[in-house]
Amino acid sequence: MKLIVGLGNPGKEYENTRHNVGFEIVDKYLKKYNLDANKSKFDGLYVDTIIHDEKVIFLKPQKYMNLSGEVVKKYIDYFKINIDDMLIIHDDLDQELGKIKLKENSSSGGHNGIKDIEKNIGTKNYKRLKIGISNNKKIDTKDYVLGHFSKEDRKIMDNSIDTCQNIIDDFFILNFDRLMGKYN
Asked: What DSSP string runs through 114-138?
């Protein structure tokens, strides 16, 4: 069984913000297959499906970003998911806009959602799909990540989000080293 987690903040006011890229990627992927994360359990919205003869859960934690780990941990425990079969999708302030990076066993880079996941699952050795949102040092970090993309930036992000759809498809058929080699 695999667990695909898109990180973001719940609520209309956070839709289409930089910090909700993880939610966006999961939503777009699910829409492609006429699925919707509309089941609710353990403070998360999820859907389960079968992909390549394997059960897959797509999760959008519904606690604020810095409490995402509590939700992820409950899903891991309840569904008995091996951490090796989990992919966390999130924004990355330290990468240029739209840059995609697959990582395993790396630091949180100051991302509060990632810090909370590591605290709750007891390891940093799990798979991540990071999407760069760039950084603007002239704007307070909190305001920046909770802000919306400009029209030009939105185009760049939409292209990256499209690429992420292919990465998720390949996550189910390639080992992670080959996946990183193909997309990093």
From this structure: HHHHHHHHT-S-SEEEEEE----TT
With CA atoms as reference, report the closest residue to 29 among 184, 183, 170.
170
Encode pLDDT of 105-133 as tens digits. Answer: 888 787 889 999 999 999 999 999 999 99
Neighbouring residues of 54: CB distance < 8 A, sequence distance ≥ 6: 1, 2, 172
pTM of the full structure: 0.94
Q: Kindly list the structural domains of the chain, giving each domain's residue range(s) and its CATH number in brackets, ordered by start.
A: 2-183 (3.40.50.1470)
Q: Quote the pLDDT of residue 69.
A: 96
Residues marked active site are found at 19
Separation of alpha carbons 81 and 77, rounded Å: 7
**What is the per-residue pLDDT across 21-53, written as a single tens digit (0 to 9) for each?**
999 999 999 999 999 999 999 999 999 999 999
Continuous segment of H or E residues that includes residue 49: strand 44-51
Long-range interactions of 173-180: CB distance < 8 A, separation 24+? 173/52, 176/102, 176/104, 176/127, 179/102, 180/102, 180/103, 180/104
Strand (E) or helix (H) holding 157:
helix 151-171
